[in-house]
Amino acid sequence: MEKKNVTIYDIAREAQVSPATVSRILTGTTSVREEKRKKVMEVIEKYDFHPNANARALAENRNKSIAMVVAHSDNSYYSSVFAACESEAYRRGYVLLLMDTSSRAENEVSVLKRVQELRPEAMILCGGRIDLEKQDPEFLSLLRQTMGFTRIVVGSRSPLPGIPGISVDHRASMEMAVRYLAGLGHREIGFVYTGKQFYGTAERLAEFRRVMKGLNLPLRKEWLIGVKDYSVDGGQEGAEKLLKLEKIPTALLGMNDMVSAGLLQGLLAAGLRVPEDISLMGFDDTFVTCITAPQLTSVGYDYQSYGAELVRAALEPEAEWEQDRRIPVFIEERASCAAPGKR
Amino acid sequence: MEKKNVTIYDIAREAQVSPATVSRILTGTTSVREEKRKKVMEVIEKYDFHPNANARALAENRNKSIAMVVAHSDNSYYSSVFAACESEAYRRGYVLLLMDTSSRAENEVSVLKRVQELRPEAMILCGGRIDLEKQDPEFLSLLRQTMGFTRIVVGSRSPLPGIPGISVDHRASMEMAVRYLAGLGHREIGFVYTGKQFYGTAERLAEFRRVMKGLNLPLRKEWLIGVKDYSVDGGQEGAEKLLKLEKIPTALLGMNDMVSAGLLQGLLAAGLRVPEDISLMGFDDTFVTCITAPQLTSVGYDYQSYGAELVRAALEPEAEWEQDRRIPVFIEERASCAAPGKR
DNA sequence: CCGAAAATTGAAACCGGTTTCAGTTTTGCC
DNA sequence: GGCAAAACTGAAACCGGTTTCAATTTTCGG
């Protein structure tokens, strides 16, 4: 059954035309006499011929692929993002080359090398060193170099002129969250955060302070709780720290849904009722929100349009892009927030 | 800054050797005089040259890529699987081309076409029509045709001779789960399933019946509850159906962790205590298990080794593969199961 | 120092497409 | 029917590597 690869030459020979003509039919660049087209199409059908994408890529000097580099492909935030990117890329006839750096610097380096060999038309970079608040000069120079080869788009703020940054609007999300809680009547609000070295966190912390101050709400240092990571464990750690305080806030924001889920567990275990005794909110609006009891109110993003924007920015370099763009956010109300009760 | 692509010819000219020599240095196929090698390496360094992977692919007729086709890339089961595959592929110097079919037949067709053009060295196919209990002849013939071009491996049972099937050992997982619950003293066990048309479900249902019978436990039809989908909603639907019964089992198996999480919510909402009143178990051992309260005991798989096996099977066709292989399973004990109480 | 074997090397063909360029055919119009 | 313009077509170059093959250089035993 050793099927030899059928080429455009085979098709040409059998259809008694030149390879050039077959190519023209395939690419549709020039019109071809109907009679020949029909004949060629028949032969193509007969052999179920598919043009070799590698050869085409070499000849056209473009290969219809986008490298998608993420920090942790099994994290549900990232998988939502790249599922969205994949769908948009597919719509445009592109394929995503998925690479996972596990947030390790050495992988980031070798992945970029790989990208330079693969010559995808663009690279979408999400997570890892790119998100650092204080950007890493070594990594930046690596990016700058890569930029010479392929267009880069990052799912963060723009690290360099010429690299568009598209990210969730952290500031707006925080403002919206705080205002929402304030609107319910909360004055005492805490924030359990992690990864202060990352840009998104830093931005949210700053915005939290700003909005609280603006609304004239008390800003107590012990209600800003840093925890070790973005996980359920992190949330539980947060709950423990919180429960040691003599006074706890009436509402709590968790860094993301996982942290909030952990907080929830910790608080419920301590006998608190949510939302009667304390309200709780998350960020990202992942499916985690539907799994907890009560279900989590969360600030969400439209992943589909996030992905579409990333891909669009990656493939339309000619367009006039702002250096930085923000994906709009919205609040998905569920059951974990209510007006503060009396205690 | 318009950097023209540096080619092997540019390197050759500058280093005063032939392109062939540069190529030999890059591929390491033949020895090259140390002095020339050094000179060439210098020039390569100088221009930070990376050979064009497309050209190489065309010449070598292999492109070090694997197409990974999944049904829903944002589902945490699939993202665990492909994160594992990516890691193994990367280790071997391969890149994964990620494609998502959204379980839609028309996408499955066009994705396969795409694969034939891209000529990856192999394709790993997980989820979608491939998992159907009663296999779809149209799809099979499509696969058979694709097989002529690239090696296929499926994350399910083998659909055709020559296509290795590697899958979670559904039977063992069910047997293990039932025996575990029986070991705790449960005699009345229910199973909330979904997707009877899929192979894994069918296999688990059959195995459930077999093991229950073997252990001489009561097999009541109303404790086998079919629900609409693999989600939290599906679980809630299951809980509703269950709560209408006049007698409910003392332990319950959910199709996967999401379904079990939904079940948990439904049961807790109805005032039942878990595990005191009813024990609950999930499958897949995803991070969902850690988010619920109580945390879910679940049957898990080693995703890392699952991914490694898939990739290995994809890239080592010469090896003697069994047609079908099963990934071992284990029980991850958490807090949702206990000995049955009296009611 | 000589000759044969071993190690290196370059020219050229090749991988499978696309595209330019220069004919060759057709078409459209008077 | 004749001619210019438009439409089509094929030969050949090219994309950027790898590899075969034959020639050249080195190495080494005697």
| Greatest chain-chain contact | A-B, 56 and 57 residues
Straight-line N-to-C gap of chain A: 78 Å
Question: CATH topology of the largest domain in chain A, anyone?
Answer: Rossmann fold
Helix content of chain A: 40-55%
Oligomerization: homodimer
Sheet with most strands of chain A: 6 strands, mixed
| Series of H and E elements of chain A | HHHHEHEHEHEEHEHEHEHEEHEE
CATH superfamily of the largest domain in chain A: Response regulator
Give me the count of strands of chain A: 12
Number of helices of chain A: 12
Determine the strand fraction of chain A and express it as a percent band. 15-25%
Question: What is the CATH domain class of the largest domain in chain A?
Answer: Alpha Beta
Count up the domains of chain A: 3
| CATH second-level architecture of the largest domain in chain A | 3-Layer(aba) Sandwich
Describe this structure in words.
The structure is a homodimer. In chain A, helix 6 runs parallel beside helix 7 (about 135-145). Chain A has three domains: about 5-60, 434 Repressor (Amino-terminal Domain) (Orthogonal Bundle), CATH 1.10.260.40; about 65-170 and about 305-325, 3-Layer(aba) Sandwich (Rossmann fold), CATH 3.40.50.2300; about 170-300, Rossmann fold (3-Layer(aba) Sandwich), CATH 3.40.50. With about 350 residues, chain A is an alpha/beta fold. The mean pLDDT of chain A is about 95. Chain A has helices spanning about 10-15, 20-25, 35-45, 55-60, 75-90, 105-120, 135-145, 170-185, 200-215, 230-245, 255-270, 305-315, and strands spanning about 65-70, 95-100, 120-125, 150-155, 165-170, 190-195, 225, 250-255, 280-285, 295-300, 325, 330. In chain A, the strands form three sheets. A six-stranded mixed sheet of chain A has the order 7-6-8-9-10-12, sandwiched between helices. In chain A, strands 2-1-3-4 form a four-stranded parallel sheet, sandwiched between helices. The termini of chain A are far apart. Chain A contains twelve helices and twelve strands. The longest helix of chain A is centred in the N-terminal third of the chain and has 16 residues, at about 75-90. At the A-B interface, helix 4, helix 5, strand 2, helix 6 and helix 11 of A face helix 4, helix 5, strand 2, helix 6 and helix 11 of B. The structure holds a DNA duplex (30 and 30 nucleotides).
